[in-house]
Amino acid sequence: MRPSFRTLSVILWVLGLVPFADGRDLLAVGTEFPGLYVLDAKGEASGLGVDVMRAIASDLGDQVRFESYPWARAQKLVEEGRADVLIGPYRTVARERRFQFAEPGFYRDSVVFYARSDASPAWDGSLASLMGQRIAIIHGWSYGERFDAMRGQLDLHVAPSVELAFKLLMANRVDLAASNERDSRPRIEALGIASQVRRLEPVIDTQVGYFALPRGESHRQLRDDIGRVLRQMRTDGRLKKLARTYAVPLP
Questions:
Q1: What are the structural domains, with CATH classification, of the chain?
Q2: 41 torsion bin: left (phi>0), alpha (psi -120 to 50), beta (else)
Q3: Three-state SS letters, the chain
Q4: d(C-alpha 125, C-alpha 123), whole Å
Q5: I need a surface site. Which of 63, 84, 103, 108 has the fewest CB within 10 A?
């Protein structure tokens, strides 16, 4: 008996040669991250994470729509399976218990401290140098395993956004603001404080960002499909070209 057209289509789809005819309707969520996920005045999403996810969906024959939420809320929606893809989280041991991650990652961040230009806070990369200093962090963010291991011993002040973390810094309510360079640059410019803050060395950590999905069998195939197309995009240069548009470093 000859195989049906649909059977052949499924076989080719499994092999990654053609997208599946009955495409999935995907919901991707995130929050406003400069260069990765930005909403314009009309509410249209753009950025590296958006463009890459659109390219992946197109290759797979899927449809994808984007919704923006506060970061903690976006994570919760994916964790509970009410959204399919979380755009841009760093990968940590704690998050491995909440999500599955599509390999490989698609961008890289430098996580750093900022201080006021007229201050001389100590930071030499050690926990000891942070003792007694007030540090602004952003709600729902991970700063890497190294920093997260220090959290219980630090004087942390949680801000709901990068802008408010820098406002706390400028108001002298904290001594340091922990953020990443990609997110911080446009916020510093928008606040008009470029001459009043400085980035400290060394970096806290270097992190790679991923697409994360709900844990469990229901999203395992999608995870593998996203990873397969991402690898193709790295090989054929599409990922590099998109990243250049937004000046976002690749892993």
A1: 5-108+208-246 (3.40.190.10), 110-206 (3.40.190.10)
A2: alpha
A3: CCCCHHHHHHHHHHCCCCCCCCCCEEEEEECCECCCEEECCCCCEECHHHHHHHHHHHHHCCEEEEEECCHHHHHHHHHCCCCCEEEEEECCHHHHCCEEEEEEEEEEEEEEEEEECCCCCCCCCCCHHHCCCEEEEECCCCCCHHHHHHHHHCEEEEECCHHHHHHHHHCCCCCEEEEEHHHHHHHHHHHCCCCCEEECCCCCEEEEEEEEEECCHHHHHHHHHHHHHHHHHHHHCHHHHHHHHHCCCCC
A4: 6
A5: 63
Residue 24 corresponds to which tokens in the numbers above? 């999935």
